[in-house]
Amino acid sequence: MERILSLPLTEKTVREIKAGDIVYLSGEILQLTAAAHKRALEHAAQGKPVPFDVENMAIYHCYTCFTEDNNGLECKFLGATTSAGVNPFQPAFIREFKVRAVVGKGGMDEATLKAMQDVGCIYLAQVGGCTQICTEAAEKITTKFWEDLGPNLAMKIVFNKLGPLVVGMDAHGNSIYDDTSKKTRENQKLIYKKIGIVS
């Protein structure tokens, strides 16, 4: 099923979405790398304010090339990063900040899948080869945070139909990555059996 969604998202909407669905997202999305996740969680643990609110919103594991002039900030290029690098922080981040969608590539671990199931959150995988399309969906950058993190700074980016994004992990504990691995193992066993490696 194809879904065109506008942020913010409700938990009800998120729980209606299934692994394998195609999603397009419109609205303000926060670029957030592992370093920014770590800092946000440290601030929350210490009772310090976090300069952004992502409750019912989406975050994007990506890096952005941008320019800044009298007309403001302009996104020149953005690319999804491998989400596995955020695994140490993602489950706690989802629970702490009640984020509804995570955009990235490559999938995430079982602990993150469990947090998504508990809170009501989905993982949206950027389709390979669609970097240019996703860049063109970025209308403007509205705010920068934590510039001292260099390329790992956080930014709010307004998108118009970011996608196509595949629902890689849903809020019901389903993961296309687990399904693919299972099918691969099953097919491997069949092949081995045919060539006589296993009985």
Low-confidence stretches: 180-192
Number of domains: 1
Tell me the quaternary state: single chain
Query: Based on DSSP secondary structure assignment, what is the total number of beta strands?
Result: 9
Give the name of the CATH architecture.
Alpha-Beta Barrel
Beta-strand portion reads: 25-35%
Structural class: alpha/beta
How far apart the termini lie comes to 40 Å
**Strand order within the widest sheet?**
2-3-6-7-9
Provide the succession of SSEs. Answer: EHEHEEEHEHEHEEH
**Class in CATH?**
Alpha Beta
The whole-number mean of residue pLDDT values reads 88
In CATH, the topology is named fumarase
Q: State the fourth-level CATH superfamily.
A: Fe-S hydro-lyase, tartrate dehydratase beta-type, catalytic domain
Report the C-alpha radius of gyration, rounded. Answer: 18 Å
* Major beta-sheet overview: 5 strands, mixed, barrel
Principal-axes geometry comes out as globular
Question: So how many helices?
Answer: 6
- Percentage of residues assigned to helices: 25-40%
What do you see in this structure?
The chain is α/β, with parallel strands linked by helices and 199 residues long. The chain has a single domain, classed as Fe-S hydro-lyase, tartrate dehydratase beta-type, catalytic domain (fumarase), CATH 3.20.130.10. The protein is 31% helix and 34% strand. The protein is built from 6 helices and 9 strands. The strands form 2 sheets. The protein has a 5-stranded mixed β-barrel. Helix 2 packs across helix 3. The longest helix has 19 residues. It is globular. The termini are far apart. The relative contact order is 0.21. About 7% of the residues have low confidence.
